[in-house]
Amino acid sequence: MSMSRPSADTASILSHSTSRTASARGPVFTLETFSNKDFIVKDFIESLSDAAVPAARKSGPSSGHQAFDPKPLIRTFEHALARLNNLSEELEERENELSGAVRRAEAQHNQNVDSLGRNLEHAIDQFQKLDSSLNGGMNDDGVQDVGGNVAVRIGERLEELDRQRQRAQDARFLIRCWQEVSEKGDLSTLEDMRRLGGGDGKVRCAHIARQLLKISTRLDPDGTQHVNGNGGAQNGNGVKRRPIGNQARYPSREIIEKFLENLEQDLLQQFDEFYRRQNLDGMRECATALRDFNDGASVMATYVNQHNFFIDRNQLITEEITGDAETWDRLQDPDAEAPGVEPSLQSLVDEVQIVIQDESQIIRRAFPYYDEVLIRFIQRVFQQSIQQRLEMVLDKANELSSLAFLRSLQAARSYIAALVDNLKSHGLTEHPEPVTSQIAATLDQQLEDLFVPYFVGSSYIEREKKNLEELYSSLLLKFTIYHSRRRKMPTTYFASLAQRGKELAASARDAYMDRLDSTDLPATQKAMLLRIAGLKEDQSEKKDIEVTDEDGKLSLSNAKRMLKWLAEGVGRGLELSPGNETPKDVQNLLNLLLTHMGEIYLETALDAASDHAASQETLKTPPDLTHLPSLATATTILHLLQTTSSTILLPLCTPNLTIRREIEKSTSTTLSTLESKLSNILNLTITASLNWVSKCLAQQKKTDFRPKDDTDLTLLATETPACQAVVQFLTRVATQSTSALSGRNLALFLSELARGLRALVLEHLRKFNISLTGGLVVSKDMTKYVELVRGWPTGEELEPGSMDVLVEVANLFVIGPEALRERLRGAGTADVGELKAFILKREDAGSVGVQAALSAV
Question: For the chain, what is the radius of gyration of the CA atoms?
Fold first, then answer.
């Protein structure tokens, strides 16, 4: 009996439960089974296979071999295939429904986009038409569209009508108030407005009262409302007034002025109450109302005058200037660094910065016209607090010395200028932005006004010149006294300087003391100048000023002090003096330096050295060259002076070409004078040295170059005494010149000395007859001279081999006639005559061989 095949409907309701017949069993699955992400085909097939195997067959023992039965699997897979076909059809139907819905949605979307696009184009067209209408553009027909201009004119007309309406209302109210004051003698309407109108009402009340006062001035010039009963009276325009009977006389102007005064006082009182309670909004309302009273001058004065800073500082401003004595001593000591700004002034300036920065924020919130209030506040701070303290500090410094005053002035100017810069960068009412141009101009003007009295005309540079001149004169006092005695009593260099003439010293000291007394210098400054001069304070009587050799010598440290003082003055001038005055100021200070360092200091010392060098030319003893060491210091100071003027001071005068050329000329003249004096000293020294060399050579014995065979052969082992004396003397000269000079100056000096030595020695040889043995002595001396000069640092200034001519000349006395002939033939035409002159000094010059050599050329 065969089994029938199950239908698809039967397969769709199959479950996983097992039954006794395989034909009634089939798997159940839906679309969700395949949409699961964990779905695996292999596992699905295995589940179908497991469902097709009978339960008994799976659990029963495998006692015997059973044949494979494919029918359950076939039926199961048939059922699954049918179910899959049903699901496929169901899925296709759902896909078709969804596709139809998507097509309908796309069609609806396209319709919406088209509709929105048309609406947007319509809106753009409308906007363009409106824009063209407002801007007076062209319409579609090419006709000028004036709708925009019409709208503008309509708006302007409406605004004008509104202003006319407001003026009419104000005029009506003004007439009403005038009637009250003229007919009733009161201002009740304005009083009500003042009490109930608030901040805006008070502003309007003050404005109307001002207008009433003007009306009263014109209509009631005498201050009272006159009776108009006189029919013949005429008004100011010549029109007869209509008689209206007797009216009471009310002093309208007095009433209005009294009202304004009361209003102002009430507003000021109210402002003060708000200020004490720090009610900034209330202060602003009162300040706005008080603007009509003298442009707010009263409220600004009230605000500034009652500020705690001025109240507290008024008590401190009268305190005496204090400070430790060490600080004041350093302030007037030119060799010490300036201590900076005075402490009490510094404290005040620091407090001013904090107060102005904090107060500017309050002013901005409390005043609608805050810039004017801040300007008034700044002016009060600078003109009262800072100026008073500054004057006290400078007066105290001026009591000490000129230098103390100048240093205090510079420190104060620098510190207050820093205050101004800090306030500008802070911004004050515009914080964190920079201050407005008006506030910046006010700060700059206040800074300028503080220091104007100290820079009027040439007062500042005159102070600088006076200070430097006093310092330089004090520093060079003993130096000038020392050299003034030398000029009156010249002997040797240091011997004449060491003699002290009491009368000359007294006159020099009295002149210095008289100059100090005549300038009305403070006692502290006099003490400082005496200390710089090396004098004691108890030397107030006319006593001798003791000077030593060291006082008459140039001092590099003193020169550096002078340049340091000058540099401080120039730097101070650059900071304090206006820029257009800088070239002129620099010229004044440089002239002062050239006078004291160039003429008084260097030129005086060089003159002393020159006199001493000149005095050594004709002495019978070896020349005293003790003036040479001073040339080293003079050269260094001269270089410092030249460097200072050319690299530091001259560039500062570039803006003024005329002054620059004048400075170049004066500096060049001074330096040329000093350099010529220095060169003259070296020339005099060379002359004195060569003169002594001549004297040493004059000691040469005639037998030195014609020794006897038995007794004078010892001369061959060493140089002659004259040569030894020359070498010893020139060695000392070279040593002293090396310590005094350097570089090209030393090379030039020694080269000239070497050339002079060569000329003297050659001339010296022409004075002697020289034997063959004496020729060996001459060679020994000449070799020593050459070795001496070879050890000098002449550099390229001395021609190479220039001293070898001495050895060559010495060889003329020892070589034979044949060698003489070859030597003469190898010499130039100009040298032959000189060589023959030396050959003729040979002892055997008359021999046949020598004569033959001479006649051969």
Answer: 60
